[in-house]
Design goal:
The complex is a heterodimer.
Chain A (H helix, E strand, L loop, with lengths): L5 E6 L5 H7 L5 H7 L1 E5 L11 E7 L5 H13 E7 L1 H5 L11 H8 L23 E3 L6 H12 L11 H8 L4 H5 L35 H10 L4 H8 L7 H9 L4
Parallel strand pairs in A: 1-2, 1-3, 3-4, 4-5
Chain B lengths: L12 E4 L1 H12 L3 E8 L2 E6 L10 E6 L2 E6 L16 H4 L3 E10 L2 E6 L7 E6 L1 H13 L10 H9 L1 E5 L10 H4 L13 E7 L4 E7 L2 H8 L4 E2 L2 H14 L10 H6 L6 H8 L5 H5 L6 E7 L5 E8 L9 E2 L2 E2 L4 H20 L9 H4 L7 H10 L4
Parallel strand pairs in B: 2-8, 8-9, 9-10
Antiparallel strand pairs in B: 1-11, 1-12, 2-3, 4-5, 6-7, 6-14, 10-11, 13-14, 15-16
Classes of the chains: A alpha/beta, B alpha+beta.
Chain lengths: 258, 381
């Protein structure tokens, strides 16, 4: 019998919610534990096995010089490296600092700014090391995570479509909140995968899964203005969990206050 | 799908509003899964119907490009609304279907098809444009021809019972008149019964005509009286009202688009087009699907799923080397030229029924009739 693949889960700047999705698997958790050797997963266990690792799941963004160094070490020890969540794939909500003056934040928030050692930006893992696959979401979907791990273990292509959220809504029969009630929604430019969570509860999509393939954010922004959204509203709509994902960053910047 | 029998107008009957409850009960009693329009989340959707009082009495829809709103109508009409975000295709051709599953066994694997027995479907409230859409999908999925029949679709379709309804008004995005697909249900269409709502201060009735022997037999089980000349006149007036439509497809659109595959207007559309695929999802004739293979963690269990897909996704035209239609302009052109032009070559009719769903449910209100007209108006430029 061959040894089970070694799984490592790494945390960078993040809230831990995506790692938690793995523990959240509950019904499937035993199957996961049976399929892989959980070699490094501090949120689940203090027991650590040294590398190299067959599959590394990386959560979080790079916000400190120390992070930038550590991710290179993780990459060197990982045969397959997959980033999970908006922080790791786009810089996360903390990438809002990319659009502001970090030094002034530090001065106003911390009594001892001299203890703070941070980069001016929060950036995605792929901006620092090569990444084999990116799993989107804030947080990620546990179904997509299981699908991805299953695909990696079985050497097949993961079924993680990159098309818009609208496909997911329409397949589910969810009534479009933007057309039927004028609710602003980022669904048409956001990648599917969350299970159309917000539109199914009469809310517009917040873009947690980041830009869909070929997103026409300019056209959507124009329509949001027609729906009564101010320039500032539109800027903020694109500047949330995936503010630093290229398409959303561009559109947010285009609506930045003068 | 029962064979067609002539339905002369003199065989039309009139049933009272209350008889619709009996019709629903009759269908349910015969084992049908009855589906009909009802109010949900600010729209009229199609879903399982236990009783006729679930029908959206008194609600009408105001539709424009990218906008749908329900408002109270002038009366308690059950079918005063027109078509909403759903179409009957989601029942005949479900958005996600498991095709088969496989289990690894010693030295190989065992495949089982997932053919759960399904109750026959009965649709209540099918509009003329929707009967045309079903007829189009019947051709696409080979219900009549044997060579490439989609067996699941054909089985559901052949078992389905269709209770049609004549529209008494048109929504702002309707253009069935210009597509010759409505508003009146014509006798060449496949339906079992067709209703026309007759409603004024004094009464709430339905003119009913059977289109099949099965329909006639159902109708015979309902309390009714023969239709009078006045009933027929009133029904014609309702259809005439619904024929007043503000949108129309440009004549000769199939040739027009064929001759304008290169046109600067495609880029103009692409500036607005979100590429989100909503138009294809709500279209009652769009039939494209993708196939997804998944396994569990162990790899011992595999499944193949078929899901609604769209020519607007990049993956859709992916072949070795990349997607064929990488620009939004190319994807929009693919959709509209297929729908209005090359569909004729492929299936012998237009793929468009003038239902207007693609206009209403496009988040930015791109209008298939306006885009075709823009091509015509700027032809050769």
């Amino acid at each position: 019998m061959t040894a089970k693949p070694k799984l490592a889960v790494w945390k960078f700047s993040s809230c831990d919610g995506c790692q938690l999705s793995l523990l959240d698997c509950e019904d499937e958790l035993l199957a996961v534990a049976g399929a892989v050797e959980i070699a490094y997963f501090l949120e689940a266990s203090r027991a650590v096995t040294s590398g190299p690792y067959d599959l590394s799941l990386v959560e979080g963004s790079i916000t400190t010089p120390h992070d930038a160094e550590r991710i290179r070490k993780v990459r060197r020890q990982s045969r397959t490296l997959i980033t999970i969540g908006a922080c790791a794939t786009a810089g996360g909500i903390q990438a809002l600092k990319n659009f502001a003056n970090v030094q002034s934040f530090i001065r106003s928030v911390y009594p001892h700014p001299e203890f703070i050692d941070t980069l001016a930006t929060s950036t995605a893992i792929k901006d620092h090391v090569p990444v084999d696959f990116e799993l989107r979401g804030c947080p990620i979907s546990k179904h997509q995570l299981l699908e991805l791990v299953s695909a990696v273990l079985n050497l097949r292509k993961p079924v993680i479509p990159t098309a818009s959220q609208c496909l997911e809504c329409k397949r589910a029969g969810t009534v479009c909140v933007m057309v039927a009630s004028g609710t602003p929604c980022l669904g048409p430019v956001t990648q599917a995968g969350c299970g159309n969570l917000c539109p199914a509860h009469d809310r517009g999509c917040y873009g947690c899964f980041g830009p869909a393939e070929a997103p026409n954010t300019a056209s959507l922004a124009q329509h949001l203005a027609v729906l009564g959204q101010s320039r500032r509203d539109i800027e903020l709509a694109f500047r949330s969990f995936n503010a630093n994902a290229e398409a959303f960053r561009r559109e947010g910047n285009a609506h930045e206050r003068e | 799908m029962a064979s067609k029998t002539p339905a002369p107008a003199d065989r039309a009957g009139v049933i009272a509003r209350a008889a619709l409850d009996e019709l629903v009960a009759l269908l349910a009693g015969r084992g049908y899964r009855v589906i009909g329009p009802q109010l949900r989340d600010g729209a009229i959707v199609y879903d399982d119907l236990a009783r006729a009082d679930q029908l959206p009495a008194g609600w009408i829809d105001q539709q424009e490009g990218g906008s749908y709103r329900l408002v109270r109508g002038p009366d308690a009409a059950l079918f005063g609304h027109v078509v909403g975000p759903h179409s009957w295709k989601r029942f005949l051709y479900p958005p996600a279907q498991k095709l088969w599953q496989a289990e690894r066994s010693a030295g190989g694997f065992t495949v089982t098809t997932a053919a759960e027995p399904e109750p026959p479907l009965a649709f209540l409230g099918v509009r003329a444009c929707e009967l045309h859409a079903i007829a189009i999908q019947d051709r696409v999925f080979g219900v009549e021809s044997g060579d490439f029949t989609d067996s699941g679709y054909a089985a559901r379709r052949q078992a389905a019972l269709l209770v049609a309804v004549n529209c008494g008004r048109a929504a702002g995005t309707c253009f069935c008149v210009s597509m010759q697909t409505g508003p009146k249900v014509t006798e060449d269409l496949a339906y079992d019964l067709v209703l026309t709502e007759l409603l004024d201060d004094r009464r709430h009735d339905f003119l009913v005509t059977a289109g099949t022997a099965r329909g006639a037999e159902l109708l015979a089980g309902l309390p009714q009286r023969p239709a009078s000349a006045a009933d027929l006149v009133e029904a014609e007036a309702a259809s005439a009202r619904a024929a007043v439509q503000s949108r129309a497809m440009v004549p000769g659109v199939a040739d027009l688009l064929r001759q304008n595959l290169e046109h600067r207007h495609w880029d103009a559309v692409a500036e607005r087009c979100l590429g989100c695929a909503n138009c294809t999802m709500v279209c009652p004739t769009c039939f494209c699907s993708t196939v997804e293979d998944v396994t569990d963690l162990s790899g011992d269990h595999a499944e193949r799923w078929r899901k609604w897909d769209s020519c607007y996704t990049l993956e859709f035209s992916y072949i070795h080397g990349g997607g064929v239609r990488r620009e939004t302009a190319a994807r929009y052109r693919q959709w509209i030229t297929h729908k209005l032009s090359s569909w004729h070559d492929q299936f012998g009719s237009s793929g468009c029924t003038g239902c207007g769903r693609c206009i209403t449910w496009c988040p930015v209100g791109i209008d298939i009739t306006a885009e075709a007209r823009a091509i015509r108006d700027a032809e050769g430029s």
